């Protein structure tokens, strides 16, 4: 099972050998300064956005109108969701953990490690819908 951890000033998603094959990539590393928000998602399927780009339906990259996500989720398990700021290579990292208590603990731990985390809400923000919003507003 994939694991999220902090290594120096980076957030690392370590993949198992099987997950590396499914995702067709190695571990994911992003700077902690790019972390916007960390949440625990009780329902694994809520972490999936867009369509599979590379990998399988649940493991790998997914494309949507606001960018690309990286997911390693398993049915029946909660997920830790990390929203990222540009110029990070992904908009969201979602990784399954065994229990909801583990998800909340991991989210709190990662949240304490990120220097500029957004604490305005404890929920993930929805994707912007093209064509909606104030005139002239650009997608984030």
Quick summary:
With 140 residues, this protein is of the alpha+beta class. It has helices at residues 17-23, 100-113; strands at 3-7, 10-14, 28-31, 35-41, 51-55, 59-64, 67-72, 79-84, 92-96.
Question: What would your notes on this structure say?
Answer:
Strands 4-8-9-7-6-5 form a six-stranded mixed beta sheet. A three-stranded antiparallel beta sheet has the order 1-2-3, covered by helices on one side. It starts with a strand and ends in a 27-residue tail after the last helix. A hairpin with a 2-residue loop joins strand 6 and strand 7. It has a single domain (3-113), classed as PH-domain like (Roll). It has helices spanning 17-23, 100-113; strands at 3-7, 10-14, 28-31, 35-41, 51-55, 59-64, 67-72, 79-84, 92-96. 15% of the residues lie in helices and 35% in strands. With 140 residues, it is an alpha+beta fold. The model has no long low-confidence stretch (mean pLDDT 84). The protein is built from two helices and nine strands; from the N terminus they run E-E-H-E-E-E-E-E-E-E-H.
Q: How many β-strands, per DSSP? A: 9
Number of domains: 1
What is the CATH architecture descriptor? Roll
The main sheet comes to: 6 strands, mixed
Please give the alpha-carbon distance between the first and last residues. 31 Å
Query: Given the C-alpha coordinates, what overall shape results?
Result: globular
Instruction: Tell me what portion of residues adopts beta-strand conformation.
Output: 35-45%
Number of helices: 2
On the 0-100 scale, what is the average pLDDT?
A: 84
Q: What is the name of the CATH class?
A: Mainly Beta
* Strand ordering within the main sheet: 4-8-9-7-6-5
Rg for CA atoms: 14 Å
The portion of residues assigned to helices is 10-25%
């Amino acid at each position: 099972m994939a694991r999220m951890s902090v290594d120096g000033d980076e957030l690392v998603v370590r993949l198992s050998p099987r997950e590396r094959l499914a995702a067709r990539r190695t571990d994911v590393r992003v700077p902690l300064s790019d972390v916007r928000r960390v949440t625990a998602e009780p329902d694994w399927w809520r972490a999936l956005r867009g369509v599979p780009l590379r990998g399988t339906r649940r493991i790998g990259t997914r494309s949507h109108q606001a960018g690309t996500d990286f997911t390693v989720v398993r049915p029946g398990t909660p997920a830790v969701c990390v929203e990222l700021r540009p110029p990070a290579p992904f908009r969201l990292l979602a990784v399954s953990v065994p229990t909801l208590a583990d998800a909340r603990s991991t989210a709190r731990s990662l949240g304490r490690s990120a220097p500029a985390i957004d604490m305005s809400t404890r929920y993930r923000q929805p994707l912007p819908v093209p064509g909606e919003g104030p005139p002239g507003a650009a997608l984030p």
